[in-house]
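cache lookup: miss for this entity combination. No prior model stored, computing from scratch. Input as submitted by user K.M.:
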Amino acid sequence: MNKAKKGDWVRIYNVVLKPEERAPQVPDDTKKVPLEMWVKGFLLNEEARIGDEVEIETYIGRKIKGKLVEINPYYNHDYGKCIPELLFIGKQLRGILEGGEDNE
Amino acid sequence: MNRDMSYQSVMSRRNEIMKKAVGIDYERFESKGIAFDYERMMRETGYTLQEIQKIQSETGVGNTPIYELKNLTALARKLAPEGKGARIFIKDEACNPSGSFKARRAATSIYHAKKKGYKGVIAATSGNYGAAVASQAAMNGLKCIIVQECYDSRGIGQPEIIEKARKCEAYGAEVVQLTVGPELFYTFLKLLEETGYFNASLYTPFGIAGVETLGYELAMQFRELVGKDPDVVVATNAGGGNLTGTARGLKKAGAYNVKIVGASVNLKGLHMASDTQFNKKSFTTGHTGFGIPFATWPDRSDVPRSAARPLRYMDRYVTVNQGEVFYITEALAQLEGLERGPAGNTSLAAAFALAQELDEDKIIVAQETEYTGAGKHIQPQLTFARENGVDIIIGNPDEEVPGENIILPSHPSQIKARDLDLDRIKKSYIKNCIETTKIDYVTREDIDFLVEDTKSNEKFVKQILDELGVKY
């Protein structure tokens, strides 16, 4: 889905500061890139496509403009992948407490 | 209203915007020189401990349980010399409504904002404080905006920060997500100006006084449970408010002899404002990247005078490594049946090591835990580290290089609390005081202030002033 209609929950994008506008104290690598911003809200335009300049109303009712980047944005963080390096810890600790290991 | 919204112009209106947004005229507490009247600021703008207890209890904040970690204590004793191995306790701050001790700070701030008639609150935070402010704002019917430093220039964000955004949005807050950089403050100021909301800063007297209940409860709980005050309290240290508030609360309970230890995750070498290094760290708070700069210059915060002044209360400052905190987080789950977020376990990793220096009859407390969940858990955080080029190794944690690898100790005996040179940090703070105020003569009042603000003595302060070539 890349077309949103009025009232859809969307995410917009803005550049706050261009690289040349960045604060003097930022490190060089950061100075090379813009300061970017993302905000979510309900679309106020009748309809819009990804990439269009639009206006939204955030959940608390603030109106803000920006480029439409996502429709029905969702969270994709999770519990991660298996980290095999963690698996020994519990067994090791139980072993020590049960006296199975010499710790002098 | 046609105000100039350029970076320079908004920043130059900083003091005016802040005065409106926190409602404190900080100039009232200032002297002409270095000194300012910290205790009077805490008294006149804050609330009494009893008032705060009442405010917090109305939203279910505080009175969190303490647990004795008997298996971790037994483990520490196996590793310690004969007769050593203090009893290790933890205060389960994850039991607060928003999942961390930050609810204490938020409760007081939001109560104050509501009382003063503000329609909403804004906080600049990527951490647990955002969730705390959003939760308290929801309870009090105020609107809430949280400004996060969240992504690098590839648009990639730490799972822990993304989870915090989710939690804030769950409470009905608007979350403004930014890429890396100190100019977050510019966006923050613009939002304060646009909305007229209250600045729920972490560093106002309200915020810090909110943590005093934690220290007070600790003393009361231990007196009831074991009949005495704890011997050592370890506080994870970033901006300094956790340690400051806890130490003040202990004093208000009359627990004057408790040693206060600050603990931070060692992120030496990583620049906090660097776009390319932003996602090379596995801790978004509780680390030296905040701990050291805020200790050496607390007034760098988002209010003119920070109420968080950790050097005033700290007896010792130690670091632990990322891999050690991950290991102890796994140990807490496996041995004690408590699954808690990694960052909050920074103080526990330090307490586990420090317990081995203390006699068996002593009591050491890690004074907080935080919630855990998707993103905010050892597995996603280590997955993220690996995907961002950081090696995960089992080995000797002494060899950990922040940003390059995370070393899970191959044996719990390798977990250490490494002392930072507190005198050097104090010296650096005094130097910053001189450089910021640009004064060439230090008054009697300034010296007294510096002695208090560094928990040192006159001889120490004068020696540093001599070294800096400043007259007094």
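stored under new cache key. The longest strand of chain B covers residues 143-151.
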